[in-house]
Amino acid sequence: MNKEILHIKNMVCPRCIASVEDILHELNYSVEQVLLGEAVLNETLSVNQLAVLKDKLLKQGFELLEDKKDKIVEAVKTHVIQLVKNPDKHSSTKLSTYLSKELGYDYSHISSLFTASQHITIEKYVILQKIEYVKELLSYNELTVSEISDTLNYSSVAALSAQFKSITGITPSKFKSSDQARKSLDNLIP
Hints:
Blueprint: E1 4-9, H1 14-26, E2 31-35, E3 38-41, H2 47-59, E4 63-65, H3 68-85, H4 95-103, H5 107-118, H6 122-140, H7 145-151, H8 157-168, H9 172-177
Antiparallel strand pairs: 1-3, 1-4, 2-3
Helix pairs in contact: 3-5, 3-6, 6-8, 7-8
């Protein structure tokens, strides 16, 4: 049985996975698994089937990626989101080493592709993702800024606060008491 791996842009959360699974099942495709950024099918799709799938994905805010460079950039985004949401999983591994290992390319190649495509560095993208996650954690009102700092492996509360303020223009405490909206993870880059 032939397998086909589809790379899908704008998948950033478990609800995205469920939405893509629903689309694939609605089209009666044999699905092995769906992960952030990709779906593995137990069949090869025809050109017509791919066109129908592209259309259905677009209607839900997703995009089927076909260009190799786009696939690498989207894979970087997916891995960064996973690292930010699970900081202890790879806390001892350098980002460059982790991405090179996971994607099978030299980090300088990955970094160049990402920067050319997104107009920001991977490191800046990581910071934007971390700050959005800090906003999410603050909005739940379950952790203190100090606990969030520890959870996300910041060197100190001051380091977190300084980075937060440089990105948002306000301190974490001000954000917590304001009505500022969070950004969608797939729209962090202008």
